[in-house]
């Protein structure tokens, strides 16, 4: 995908969302549409935006920094926006019912659920993870927990394997923290059984990107997991590097360096038949969903910083 297409779409999104919406939100929305191979339809987006504002209370996260991200998901959904919103709220309520505190993260997780019945197993995996990382495991993990809890396999074994991956990557120079925890979670996508070669693949991908002078920051750790899950080979990685360099050269990404690698991966996945069809179609769709979870999670952290800087006395 040419950078002119990205810049053109970003211009349309930014104009539609208005000056009061942070430009990184506009960029996130742009990437959601482009990674799905869809044009940005301003009328459709605005119609769903109005629906959310009409249905949701003033204190709902769906009217705050998650608003346009959720709007994009509902526009792109298979059902009507009204049905999608009702399903989202039912899933979110189910997460509350199993003692997940209502937050932007439960709404984000609810987007990824097929039915409210998934909440109970998600709670089980969360509690199993917390047994290993009591202070690190928090509401930020809920979207990943929801995505992974309904994969086949024992919940306790999956949590134990996450912990083993976390410790293994620490010995390979990865920094401790939430980003590494998210990576260790993503690494269990295929199986809850510990596989040393998966950790080796992660290290190899990181080293390849660094050798190509592509910055790999902490917030990019989960992206390495997505590439390992998709079994990205040398050709796919070179395509990602080429895309990253194109993004680096564009005016748009000059101010948003953190977004270069995730955006390059998303766009390459959207265009690469080999990468997207490396496994069954359902698997490819699940990997894309993981990518979207990470993108939205990054937006939440960005929004928290924005809110903090705008309210220094709070």
TrEMBL record:
Protein's organism: Planococcus plakortidis
Protein name: DUF4003 domain-containing protein
Pfam families in UniProt: DUF4003
């Amino acid at each position: 995908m040419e950078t002119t297409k990205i810049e053109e779409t970003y211009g349309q999104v930014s104009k539609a969302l208005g000056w009061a919406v942070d430009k990184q939100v506009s960029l996130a929305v742009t990437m959601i549409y482009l990674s799905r191979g869809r044009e940005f339809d301003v009328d459709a987006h605005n119609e769903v935006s109005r629906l959310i504002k009409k249905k949701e209370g003033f204190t709902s996260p769906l009217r705050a920094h998650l608003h346009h991200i959720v709007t994009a998901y509902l526009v792109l959904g298979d059902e009507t926006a009204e049905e999608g919103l009702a399903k989202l709220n039912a899933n979110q309520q189910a997460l509350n019912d199993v003692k997940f505190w209502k937050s932007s993260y439960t709404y984000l997780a609810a987007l990824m659920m097929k039915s409210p019945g998934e909440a109970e197993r998600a709670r089980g995996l969360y509690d199993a993870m917390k047994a290993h990382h009591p202070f690190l495991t928090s509401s930020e993990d809920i979207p990943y927990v929801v995505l992974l809890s309904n994969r086949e396999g024992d919940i306790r074994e999956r949590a134990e394997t996450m912990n083993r991956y976390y410790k293994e990557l620490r010995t390979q120079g990865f920094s401790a923290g939430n980003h590494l925890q998210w990576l260790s979670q993503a690494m269990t996508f295929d199986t809850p059984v510990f596989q040393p070669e998966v950790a080796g693949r992660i290290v190899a991908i990181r080293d390849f990107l660094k050798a190509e002078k592509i910055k790999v920051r902490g917030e990019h750790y989960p992206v390495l997991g997505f590439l390992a899950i998709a079994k990205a080979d040398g050709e796919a990685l070179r395509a990602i590097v080429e895309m990253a360099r194109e993004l680096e050269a564009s005016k748009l990404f000059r101010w948003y360096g953190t977004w270069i690698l995730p955006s390059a991966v998303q766009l390459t996945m959207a265009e690469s038949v080999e990468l997207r069809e490396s496994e069954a179609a359902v698997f490819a769709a699940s990997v894309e969903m993981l990518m979207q979870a990470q993108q939205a999670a990054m937006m939440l952290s960005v929004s928290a910083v924005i809110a903090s800087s705008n309210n220094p006395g709070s």
